[in-house]
Amino acid sequence: MTDLAHQRLGLPAAASPYTVLRAAVRALHPDTRAVRGFRAARKRFYRQILCAHATRRTAVDDPAR
After folding, report:
1. What's the superkingdom here (predicted)?
2. pTM flag (> 0.85)
3. Whether the Cβ atoms of residue 42 and residue 48 lie closer than 8 Å to each other
């Protein structure tokens, strides 16, 4: 199962987690980033993106899976 938000970032599997996180932050609208009440949702979104990237990275590293 792949995350559509992660796919939309268009990053290669070799990208570092920091690069993925920076791309995810930029993908959000500035108004969304400014709302304090969305902080927990933003953190959840970032964790989800990083988890999807890690899954994709292990799938590329281990093609037998």
Report:
1. Bacteria
2. no
3. no
